Amino acid sequence: MIKSILLVGVGGQGTILASKLLTTGLMEAGYDVKMSEIHGMSQRGGSVSSQVRYGKIVESPVIELGGADILISFEKMEALRWLKYLKPSGRAIVNDFEIQSAPILSGKFDYPEGIVEELSNKIPTIMVNAAEQAEKIGNMKVMNIILLGATIKAMGLQDINWEKIIRDSVKENFVHINLKAIEVGMSLV
Known about the structure:
Elements: E1 3-10, H1 15-28, E2 32-38, E3 47-55, E4 68-73, H2 76-82, E5 86-95, H3 102-105, H4 115-122, E6 125-128, H5 130-137, H6 143-154, H7 162-169, H8 175-187
Parallel strand pairs: 1-4, 4-5, 5-6
Antiparallel strand pairs: 1-3, 2-3
Helix pairs in contact: 1-6, 5-6, 5-8, 6-8, 7-8
């Protein structure tokens, strides 16, 4: 059986790094894994998405509309934007975090109210306050790894050696904080 994970966020949130770590872990666990990423206007705070599909044999990295088993959203408005890609039986892990887009900052639009309630009414949703947890750890840049930890737990992937993957993938002086972040993320689910 093939599982499809859609990770979405805003440029600069570390969505692609989290996807690459997830892909590495799944490959080391023996799965056939395909990953694709779309950067869009990521350098300017635009939408970023990454699709990870794994199973015994995976022929395409692309998740079609209504094909994702799980949606991981690093910013809550992005969860609404990508919701149509989730299966009717799918679920979401959503960072309770807002990033003001250019139209919102310019005053043309307001940030939508009630996103959490809307998501919760439509699909099983795990809300994670990764910003609060990252602040407790001492580095806001580990929100992505906290969300990765939550994903690992929600998908039942704890048996993979994530410590080795973190040690092999991040700069030595950031290993400890990333290991702490992944542990915190797993504890939130």
